[in-house]
Write a structure and sequence with these properties.
- This protein is an alpha+beta fold.
- It has a domain at 78-215: Histidine kinase-like ATPase, C-terminal domain (Heat Shock Protein 90), CATH 3.30.565.10.
- The protein has six helices and seven strands; from the N terminus they run H-H-E-H-E-E-H-E-E-H-H-E-E.
- The strands form two sheets. The chain has a five-stranded mixed β-sheet, covered by helices on one side. Strands 1-3 form a two-stranded antiparallel ribbon.
């Protein structure tokens, strides 16, 4: 199957749609909370509205900070990003009552595209446990040769539909829409970062492994 190549304008538009989709829910909740404050005199309802606004504002901020690192420029071309910053935005975005995130990585600088790849793989790892569970993230190596291992465990864990083809740039449908843009973009970033990505399902666990292409045997099954 031939690889799908998106026009730069289409890629930008689809990524913008993805970010807007992630942010619109908490922003809408903030608007609803403000409307309650304007129309409601009951003290308990006003307290409820203020709590909703606070929680939704934190959620919107966390999603925007994550998007800045995962999808945005996050520095000039060739810049490096601190893995500590990646952990911070990852915890803000994903650790909640549904998902428990374990992060094991050195406090080190990695090339921008590798950190972007790690964060995008975390999105896929989260989608692998739709009913919640645990996600373990391990980073080893250095700027020259890196390895990322993300393990998602939970009830009905599965490799998200079509994600492997999208990462490889060869979606089954032959096209990419707003639902598939994030894994497709993950594949673009993986290739730009010189890393190969492979997914494996074993029982109630999905393992996502990304390794530097230079250290991957030619006969190893990998995507990206």
């Amino acid at each position: 199957m031939n690889a799908v190549t998106l026009d730069s304008l289409d890629l930008a538009a689809l990524l913008c749609s993805r970010v807007c989709h992630d942010v619109i829910s908490p922003v809408g909740a903030i608007v609803n909370g403000l409307e309650v404050l304007e129309d409601e005199n009951d003290a308990s309802m006003r307290d409820f509205a203020l709590d909703l606004i606070r929680k939704s504002a934190r959620q919107a901020s966390a999603r925007l900070q994550f998007a800045r690192l995962a999808f945005g420029a996050a520095g000039s071309a060739g810049a490096a990003i601190d893995l500590g910053d990646a952990e911070q935005v990852a915890r803000g975005m994903f650790q909640d009552d549904k998902v428990t995130l374990s992060w094991s990585a050195p406090r080190a600088l990695l090339p921008k595209n590798r950190v972007k790849l790690l964060l995008n793989l975390l999105v896929i790892a989260t989608n692998a446990v739709p009913r919640g569970g645990t996600i373990d993230v391990t980073v080893s190596g250095d700027a020259e040769a890196s390895e990322f291992v993300l393990t998602s465990k939970g009830l009905n864990a599965r490799i998200p539909a079509h994600v492997e083809g999208l990462i490889a740039g060869t979606p089954e449908s032959g096209s990419v829409d707003a639902h598939g843009i994030q894994p497709y973009y993950t594949g673009l970033v993986a290739r730009a970062a010189g890393m190969n990505v492979a997914l494996k399902l074993e029982g109630d666990a999905v393992t996502i492994r990304a390794v530097s292409a230079a250290s991957t045997p030619q006969n190893e099954a990998a995507q990206g």
